[in-house]
């Protein structure tokens, strides 16, 4: 009996035991059956391991018969694109295995107040996002016939992962409005005075990091002496490119006992850095600080039209957890005719983006997965330009809708929640939405898409319907879109869509689920200077 079959057998036996106990009046909960939680994750891990093995085999050679057959008689350049998509899949499944391994470790705790159950849902949700992203790569490049040749074990992985999500969600309290980081904010956060001047940052931000974040951009005199490395195009720094500094950070931290735990600061001086930067999953707790929005700019032009997957098109991509960026602009200059072209992609858990700008057109800001916080940022785009499957909160941000191409419709968000037990969603709070052409607040990329716009100033050029279907009636009854206490001409809800999944929240109790207090650990997420709101409502 192989490993997958053995795990399935044990999982089935455990389910039978739980059901029999329930029939005899024991009424056990999933929380009382930690073995069931572990077995469900182990089952998903076994399928992910086999899928990863097969994907490595497929992606190892661009001349694989598997790739050639899946493309039929397409041209050689399309074969190269397919090989790139297979490579993405291998990387994404490797990361998914890491998420599952962390999830498995979190099931060893049994205290109900321990935040590990919420962490588990975060990591399982991220694993599912990786699985979806793998398939998306082939669709991006119009390799639809290739998707029929994906290893069957990938479908088995999806089923077992969704099962693990359901079991662990039952243990952690359901699919919406949960505490993601700590049980300390159980009451949803008492209202904190909106006049509190200094920003307060999430608990994982160290004191020294907070001092850097609180400082206004003023060049090397402010940040340089505190930075481990300085990047400057004029030769006054340690390196002239950000990628070189990132690579050097790995070597500088190698062999240290606390490698990856202590913050590593890279200061990037004023300039336009035309490069693609990647902070890999092993590069944890990196902080990149610039001289200010539109002063320090990271720019590139990768895009889907030129043969990159959406995932791989990012100018700046970060996977290592605990990442912080401050006072920088991330842009993709591909333009509106090149379709998907990402300025920043983040899969970084517990990441903070503070006083940053993200400029692009379609798919500008890719909130790929994990827990992310954006504060006092500017986001520019045309179509689905804030998208992904992270649990993300944007506070005090300016959202600028650019004019789309003819026959295109401008949409701000496209949230990618594909399972009702994922703890993901996009919350836009105390922000401004401004458009230069008719726009919509969002459309459902996946069946259980979840987006909330609350306490924000919505410009009058936003269509009165507010939200746009993806295709026909897809997801209209399963999505969760909501608005609460928005202002501005575009914030009026009288003409909004009447979909079953759309809600105009009427009560503070309902809206509180999506405040930073409940949705994302309110005691740690406090307003910054200039945008007054409370940790509650």
From TrEMBL:
A Gene Ontology biological process term: cell wall modification
Subcellular location: Secreted, Cell wall
The protein's Enzyme Commission number: 3.1.1.11
Active site: 384
Ranges in a coiled coil: none
Tagged with keyword Nucleotidyltransferase: no
Transmembrane segments: 9-27
SMART domains reported in the protein's UniProt record: PMEI (SM00856)
Catalytic activity: [(1->4)-alpha-D-galacturonosyl methyl ester](n) + n H2O = [(1->4)-alpha-D-galacturonosyl](n) + n methanol + n H(+)
Family: In the N-terminal section; belongs to the PMEI family.
Task performed by this protein: Acts in the modification of cell walls via demethylesterification of cell wall pectin.
Record-linked NCBIfam families: PME_inhib (TIGR01614)
Name of the protein in its database record: Pectinesterase
């Amino acid at each position: 009996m192989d490993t997958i079959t053995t795990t399935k057998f044990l999982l089935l036996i455990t389910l039978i035991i739980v059901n029999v106990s329930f029939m005899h009046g024991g009424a056990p909960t999933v929380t009382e059956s930690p073995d069931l939680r572990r077995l469900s994750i182990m089952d998903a891990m076994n399928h992910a391991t086999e899928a990863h093995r097969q994907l490595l085999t497929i992606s190892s050679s661009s001349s694989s018969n598997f790739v050639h057959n899946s493309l039929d008689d397409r041209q050689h350049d399309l074969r190269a694109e397919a090989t790139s998509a297979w490579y993405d899949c291998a990387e994404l499944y490797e990361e998914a295995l890491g998420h599952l391994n962390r999830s498995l470790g979190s099931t060893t705790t049994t205290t109900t107040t321990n935040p590990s159950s919420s962490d588990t849902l975060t990591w399982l949700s991220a694993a599912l996002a990786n699985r979806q992203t793998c398939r998306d790569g082939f669709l991006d490049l119009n390799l639809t016939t290739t998707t029929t040749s994906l290893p069957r074990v990938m479908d088995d992985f999806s089923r077992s992962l969704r099962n693990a999500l359901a079991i662990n969600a039952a243990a952690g309290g359901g699919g919406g409005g949960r505490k993601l980081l700590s049980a300390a904010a159980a009451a949803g956060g008492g209202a904190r005075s909106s006049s509190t001047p200094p920003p307060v940052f999430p608990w994982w931000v160290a004191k020294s990091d907070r001092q850097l974040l609180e400082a206004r951009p003023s060049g090397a005199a402010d940040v340089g002496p505190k930075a481990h490395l300085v990047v400057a195009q004029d030769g006054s720094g340690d390196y002239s490119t950000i990628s070189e500094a990132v690579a050097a950070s790995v070597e500088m931290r190698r062999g240290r006992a606390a490698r990856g735990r202590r913050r590593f600061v890279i200061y990037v001086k004023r300039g336009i850095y035309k490069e693609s930067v990647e902070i890999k999953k092993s590069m944890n707790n990196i902080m990149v600080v610039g001289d200010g929005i539109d002063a320090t700019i990271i720019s590139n032009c990768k895009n889907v039209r030129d043969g990159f997957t959406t995932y791989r098109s990012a100018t700046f991509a970060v996977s290592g957890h605990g990442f912080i960026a401050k006072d920088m602009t991330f842009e993709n200059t591909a333009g509106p005719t090149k379709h998907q072209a990402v300025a920043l992609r983040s899969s970084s858990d517990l990441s903070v983006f503070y006083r940053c700008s993200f400029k692009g057109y379609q798919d500008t800001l890719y909130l790929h997965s994990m827990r992310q916080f954006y504060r006092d940022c500017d986001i520019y785009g045309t179509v689905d330009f804030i998208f992904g499957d992270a649990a993300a909160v944007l506070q005090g941000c300016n959202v600028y809708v650019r004019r789309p191409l003819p026959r295109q419709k401008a949409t701000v968000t496209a949230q990618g929640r594909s399972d009702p037990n994922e703890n993901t969603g996009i919350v836009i709070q105390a922000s401004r939405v401004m458009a230069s052409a008719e726009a919509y607040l969002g459309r459902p990329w996946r069946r259980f898409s979840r987006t909330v716009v609350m306490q924000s100033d919505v410009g009058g050029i936003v269509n009165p319907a507010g939200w746009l279907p993806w295709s026909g009636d897809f997801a209209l009854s399963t999505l969760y879109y909501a608005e609460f206490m928005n202002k501005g001409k575009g914030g009026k809800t009288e003409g909004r869509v009447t979909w079953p999944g759309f809600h105009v929240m009427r009560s503070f109790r309902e809206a509180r689920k999506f405040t930073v207090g409940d949705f994302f650990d309110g005691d740690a997420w406090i307003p910054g200077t200039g945008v007054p709101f409370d940790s509650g409502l």
